[in-house]
Amino acid sequence: MNDRFCIATGNSDVILSPWDTLTNAQSNGCNGGNPDQAWQWLASVGVVTGGDALDVGKGVSCQPFKFGFCNHHEGNSIYQMCPPPNCPGGCPPLLIGSQTCEPAYSLSYAADKHRASSAYKISGAAQMQTEIMTYGSITTGFDVYQNWEFYRGGVYTATDASAFMGGHAVKIIGWGECTDCDAHYICHSVSAAVPDSWCLTNCLLAHPYNCPADVCACDAPYPPTKGPKRKGGSLQYWLVANSWNPSWGENGFFRMHRGSNLCNIEGDHVSAGHVASSA
Fold it and tell me: Are 150 and 200 in contact (CB under 8 A)?
């Protein structure tokens, strides 16, 4: 919605609040939800303004995000492992949101609400492309498998029979086609005898580890190295923004195979909404 608000109104200064959305759009809080239901809330109730954790207490927005920065999977030199420093013992699941703004903010919670003018589901790759071209980025929920969590670049094309981890919500901002873009993971196979998923399991997740150097190679967590070159043909992909950190994937983005409904990324939870122009 923030992208579409900027496109429709020309106002790039307003930052809408992920905290308000997380705590008030549905009853599950940190325990998850559906992006299409969140869009319905954006249209019916609306969302207030809010920056990140560094804005807490400054009065520059209604509800800035209260959890600090942390890294979702592997530690690195920029972010520590989650939970963030301001949640000793782990952040509690949030079930009830606040209906007030920060005391120093000039507007009330009700007065600060920004609403979508509509909310709707999107069906199929062709409509997804039309929506992005016409109105801006779209939202989707997709199925996450274990190898995707250790993605480092290229086009994700297969789950490699790795374990199912759950659902995840992201935004698709565009699409493309490439010829030198096989997927690359933090640990990858250097032998035709095993797939990348075997290396992910045995080099990162096994106890004890079984990661023979003649079979697998692992990067230092950051910065990632470039993946293997594609041996022929082209790949169509979606360009997708993740919500973790710029140190994950391709500077916080990833590419997912387009046109095959891989991991249900073109499935039931592709959604968006319109934002009225200020003109």
Answer: yes
- Residue 138 in contact with residue 270, Cβ under 8 Å? yes
* Cross-strand pairs, 93: none
Burial class (CB in 10 A: 0-12, 13-18, 19+), 73: middle
Structure tokens at 279: 């003109």
Confidence band (pLDDT; 50, 70, 90) for 136? very high
pLDDT at 196: 85
CB 217 within 8 A of CB 261: no
The whole-number pLDDT of residue 205 equals 77
Sign of the four-CA dihedral 153, 156, 162, 163: positive
**Phi and psi angles of residue 178, each rounded to the nearest 5 degrees, phi first:** -145, 160
pTM for the full predicted model: 0.88
Please spell the DSSP secondary structure of 14-34, one letter per residue: --B-HHHHHHHSSS-GGG---
- Pull the structure tokens for residue 7: 């496109």
H runs (alpha helix) in the chain: 2-9, 18-24, 35-44, 124-135, 146-149, 196-200
Residue 95, pLDDT score: 65
What's the pLDDT score for residue 247? 80
pLDDT at 222 over 60: no
User: What is the spatial distance between Cα 255 and Cα 241, in angstroms, rounded to a whole number?
Assistant: 9
